[in-house]
Design goal:
Structural class: alpha/beta
Order of helices and strands: HEHEEEEHHHHHEEHHEEHEEH
Number of helices: 11
CATH topology of the largest domain: inorganic pyrophosphatase (n-terminal core)
Low-confidence stretches: 316-320
CATH class of the largest domain: Alpha Beta
Largest sheet: 6 strands, mixed
CATH architecture of the largest domain: Alpha-Beta Complex
Helix content: 25-40%
Number of strands: 11
Shape: globular
């Protein structure tokens, strides 16, 4: 059993980090912990090195406290929802780290590692461990709930189990406003996100008899739509929504590098594919980024690798 409170109490200052390209889970987990520790009169800061934080999360308690640089010296670092320290944008060498995550690709980089791949979100991990030793408040649980529904896409992913529904019920028991969450997560799209989605859908291609879909978002698309990275959330899922598609791939051009987002259905594990390119993620949701001179050539090679790894083959079709 982890003694989290005893461990945290050893430190005068605490820095909570969310990962780069932040989503609802990393921000929800970080803010949930921040609210708990603030309630317990801890000297705590919350930091995201990436300034592009999804604006639809601004309803979360203490969202305005998120800053982009670490001010504390010799603080305990709490890393939220990241499988490797490189995902946080800071040099964490020789830092004492509490690693809270749910990715099976986690490198166990912390002094204490609480990594539960069977959990649907990092916020589920945090909720479970902090409620054992701290009195949770409505504000912190609201943040954890947002992390859970974000990473499960409102309980529609393959990571959802009976335990996930039980945990969400426990969270709702804190009298959080779930209608407020639904509104902010589903009905606060930016105009630029709609525009860039249209641009991406115009590039949709099907490969291997419709088993793989690919889409591209170019620098020109991004400038034309006035989009930020947070506007790309969910775009890759549109390819996967097609009945025949088993793997959806989205290429996003970002200032000299290309971000490749991967999604898959049911028993197709794409995490090893992402790892082979220096990335990581979950069984059905993963990604990586790298410098690519020619996306079309790389796309063909990526599809060949998918075939070589036998991620796509006829036997799987009956399971989809």
């Amino acid at each position: 059993m982890y003694k989290i409170k005893e461990f945290i109490d050893r430190y005068n200052k605490i820095t909570i980090l969310s990962h780069l390209r932040p989503d609802g889970d990393t921000i929800g987990t970080a803010l949930g912990i921040y609210n708990i520790l603030k309630e317990n009169n801890k000297s705590v800061e919350i930091v995201c090195a990436d300034r592009d934080i999804p604006i639809y999360l601004d309803f979360l308690p203490n969202f305005s406290k998120i800053k982009s640089k670490i001010d504390f010296d010799n603080s305990l670092i709490i890393c939220c929802d990241g499988g490797d320290t490189k995902l946080f944008g800071f040099d964490l060498t020789n830092k004492d780290i509490l690693n809270i995550d749910h990715h099976k690709t986690n490198t166990y980089y912390g002094k204490i590692n609480i990594v539960k791949p069977k959990c649907a979100s990092a916020s589920q991990v945090a909720f479970d461990i902090f409620k054992r030793e701290f009195k949770l408040n409505k504000n912190s649980v609201l943040c954890f709930y947002v992390g859970l529904v974000s990473d499960t896409k409102y309980f529609t992913t393959n990571s959802v189990t009976k335990e996930v529904f039980d945990v969400s019920s426990d969270m709702i028991a804190y009298d959080i406003d779930i209608s407020q969450v639904a509104y902010n997560l589903n009905q606060r799209k930016t105009l630029s996100s709609i525009r860039v989605l249209g641009e991406a859908l115009n590039t949709l291609e099907l490969h291997l008899d419709g088993k793989i879909s690919t889409m591209n978002i170019t620098q020109q698309n991004i400038k034309k739509a006035g989009a930020k990275y947070s506007d790309f959330v969910g775009v890759v899922d549109y390819g996967l929504s097609l009945a025949t598609v088993q793997i959806s791939i989205l290429f996003i051009e970002l200032n000299g590098i290309v971000r490749i987002s991967l999604r898959s259905k049911k028993d197709i594990d794409i995490s090893a594919l992402a790892i082979s390119y220096g990335g990581g993620g979950h069984k059905n949701s993963a990604g990586f980024e790298m410098r690519i001179d020619n996306i079309e050539i790389f796309k063909k090679n990526l599809i060949k690798k998918i075939m070589k790894m036998e991620l796509i083959y006829e036997k799987k079709k009956k399971n989809l």
